[in-house]
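Complex 250.
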Amino acid sequence: MKRYEFLGYPVDSLTTDEALMTIDRYIEEHKPHRITPINASKLCRVDSDSRLANIIKKSDMVIPEYAVIWGANQLKIKLAEHIGGIMLMRSILEKAPFKNYKIYFLGAKEEVVTEMVKRLKREHRDLNITGYHHGYFTSENDREIIEDIRSKCPDILLVAMGTPKQEVWIDDHFEELNVPVVMGVGGSFDVFAGLTKETPDYLRCGFEWLYRLAQDPKRLWKRYITTNPKFVWKVLKAKWGLNGSGKVAL
Ligand code: UDP
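Predicted structure with uridine-5'-diphosphate bound:
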């Protein structure tokens, strides 16, 4: 995989197949690795959130959602493929039974994660779900959750508690968890549980935010109204050389 710098952050150019092969390697290495999907919203939040900025920079794999493909393109960086967190999660779940990878799910409301697990067991009979836990807990419960994860020895831990909560929780416990592949997947459990609808493929070319907004306008309007124009402006500034950030192959 080829790594570029985009607006001061790493981004990896790889296809879904290459991402899955890299995940195989991470699991063989038995060492913790983190995968971080990036999008317009995260690349705006980093301006005021140095913790998130640092987490993205130290991620083993940084996968680009559509806005990043578009923005990179403006800076003449050709990224191989648009791989959203939910898209990679789906590919992992399809492949996991063939490799007998053990998966642990952490996040979403109790009834949501339970419903998702029920549905996944029905859809992927041989999927090895080693454990799951909802994402509404306080730091007092950290110990018990960490011990549960460690005792189940998952190969892959998917954390769905929204940004930046999930990234920070992963970062706080990354070494101790000792899971070969850890990825934050935002609102994906809600989709797999049937609570929200997944964006259709034909809208994944820049309209995913609009589809999500239509489903949850109250919560999301502020996020998209502020971050979308801000992100476009950041990209244009870089394109026109107004802040010195451009294409640098690492
Ligand atoms: N969530 C959680 N714990 C919390 C807050 C949120 O598990 O303390 C879950 C919430 O139920 C939802 C997901 O995190 O399933 C948040 O999804 P969102 O769409 O905000 O994430 P994004 O993809 O935007 O990062």
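The two ends are 11 Å apart (CA to CA).
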